[in-house]
Amino acid sequence: CSDDCAGAITPGFSESDDGNTCPRVITRTWTCRDSCGNEVSASQTITVFDTTEPALAGVPDDTTVQCDANVGDPPAVTCRDNCDGSITPSFAQRDDGNTCPRVITRTWTCTDACGNLASDSQNITVNDTTDPVLHGVPADTGVQCDEDVASPAAVTCSDNCAGSVTPSFEEQNDGQRCPRVITRTWTCRDRCGNDVSASQHIT
Q1: Integer CA distances (angstroms), 57 to 115, 119, 146, in order
Q2: Phi, psi values for residue 169, rounded to 5°
Q3: φ, ψ at 68 (rounded to 5°)
Q4: 166: number of CA atoms within 13 Å, CB side?
Q5: How many CB atoms lie within 10 A of CB 98?
Q6: What are the C-alpha distances in Å from 37 to residues 22, 30, 40, 92, 196?
Q7: DSSP string of 21-79?
Q8: What is the pLDDT of residue 167?
Q9: How far is CA 4 from CA 10, 35, 36, 107, 203, in A?
Q10: Torsions phi, psi of 70, nearest 5?
Q11: pLDDT tens track for 126-148
Q12: Which end of the chain is more exposed for a tag (fewer CB within 10 A), N or C?
């Protein structure tokens, strides 16, 4: 501050804060008064207002898996904000309730003190496309007499997702006498409609 009579004068200084958050206004005022009571004031207004969204890191890409067991736990997603630093994101998971395919949507949301929001999602498609496997289907065979026809074999079935599955069984007779052919068929179907069949022919 300079004065026509006193020369250099040290101005007084005051600062006020409105106490709000977004925006927050700080007012700085300088006042210069000479020995005769003449004075002049000037102010600076500083508005603090964060308009920058936070940034999420570690949200995985969309993926497709065969079984529920392959879905896995949600990863540790992080969030950084230009003003607030590290923020813990909120997490929500939604399931469309279907079977094949079934879609799980995982969403992470990060909100800073000024309400700026960042959100990102991962879609996990659960769709079993693998056929089950039959075990123990006997080979084709020929016998001499009806009494020589053995009982149906204890065929089992395993599935990549469902584990053990009970196969269905069907037996057909061609109605002829010599030769006469009996066809035994086992079919295994999983919950996604993948199926496999195998037959034994007994002549």
Answers
A1: 19, 11, 71
A2: -135, 140
A3: -55, -35
A4: 1
A5: 10
A6: 39, 15, 10, 65, 102
A7: SSSEEEEEEEEEE-TTS-EEEEEEEEEE---PPPEEE-PPPPEEESSGGGS-PPP--EE
A8: 96
A9: 14, 11, 12, 67, 127
A10: -90, -5
A11: 999 999 999 999 999 999 998 99
A12: C
CB 119 within 8 A of CB 59: no
Tokens of 127: 């769709």
Q: Show the tokens assigned to 100.
A: 């094949």
Residue 162 pLDDT: 86
- Can you tell me the distance from the alpha carbon of 66 to that of 160, in angstroms, rounded to the nearest whole number? 8
Q: State how far the Cα of 78 lies from the Cα of 118, in Å rounded to an integer.
A: 12
